[in-house]
Amino acid sequence: xxxxxxxxxxGTRIIVxxxxxxxxxxxxxxxxxxxxxxxxxxxxVLTIDPARRLAxxxxxxxxxxxxRKVEGIKGSDGGELHAMMLDMKxxxxxxxxxHADPARARAILENPFYQSLSAGFAGTQEYMAMEKxxxxxxxxxWDLIVVDTPPSRSALDFLDAPxxxxxxxxxxxxxxxxxxxxVGGRAGxxxxxxGMSMMTGTLGKLLGGQFLKDVQTFVAAMDTMFGGFRTRADxxxxxxxxxxxxxxxxxxxxxxxxxxxxxxxxxxAAEEMPLAGLVLNRVxxxxxxxxxxxxxxxxxxxxxxxRIVDQGDGKTGQRGSPAxxxxxxxxxxxxxxxxxxxxxxxxxxxxxxxxxxxxxxxPAAQHADALGDEARNDETHGDETHDAAALDAxxxxxxxxxxxxxxxxxxxxxxxEQHTRDRFTARHPEVAVAExxxxxxxxxxxxxxxxxxxxxTGGRTPSA
Length: 464
Hints:
By secondary structure, this protein is an alpha/beta fold. It contains 18 helices and 8 strands. It has an 8-stranded mixed β-sheet with strand order 3-4-2-5-1-6-7-8, sandwiched between helices.
């Protein structure tokens, strides 16, 4: 998948990143925003995820419902980057304030039922995400909006928001609540009480009459606004289907994440949403892929058994020492190097920087040779020096065996990831894929986001 042409295309106005939780959607959205801004676009990144990673990576103390400009962007041709995080309640308040007269707006905002609804009613977040996206697009202040969605399957719940809202507003429950306001007077209240006793008898006893009165007051105040909610939600839904929108499904090369990715792909197709492709995040690689896991494990076992490294006469670690047990020549060659100096942290290998066992013999082996020569030339301290050389040799051998085992595990991971990806592509051959190599550490600044953007686009620089 070619992402730079997508970012450069002025016809692309909205990019939606969706996928399972923990696959890197927030980082991907931020990296795309940075790259697009530095290629000359005016970009706003909208995150719906309550995590603060996006703000931290962009050097902003906090994000809220107002887009904030990100400093340090090296944009050309007026490129800028802004970022914001959806404040569900504040967005709801803004809608009320914009579509109701001051007196009615105040009555709604102070209503206890509204306060509960706007703070966490099921589905409100997804609907407000639709509202905010529609607001940003209508302002036409930015020529690209990048949306970071909530984790797991709820990431596509905003696609259902118009339908669910319509069902809610057209449902019997809402019509029942609206009826007293239309009938008015005691007759209306009597109708309300009868209806509530029929539909929510137990609920009414638990919550009390005050709750029902709050709901009635809320519905009466919101009556004239319900049609506007549905109209705007439908308009945003159509906007998501428009040619200027592109969906990116984000996943890692793990079975569960790609299973969720397959669900997203199928759901987007069913909803006729434009899918740009799959971003496969945190893909592992190896600089020594020619050394298989089996050969690396065999070499490690040989080292443990002392069948490759000659420990005799103080020549431990000497290059070219023949293996006492016959093995293929390439296996012996792979096993005999001492690998980089032990000062290099062994823990770095599993974090993403490949510690290839075929690296140079390094200072450790030379140090062992020097100790062996010194032991032969110094009779006074011969025994002590010989013991030190032997001990160093054992350490080097153990380190080499350990790194060989790490490499074997890395190759096993690579094989599993490739198998998982092959299963996905066999099921969805039409989906373009962009792979992002795993980084050795977390992304926490603009430099890290640029590095992700570089990997997203196949290693090309933003000026390419």
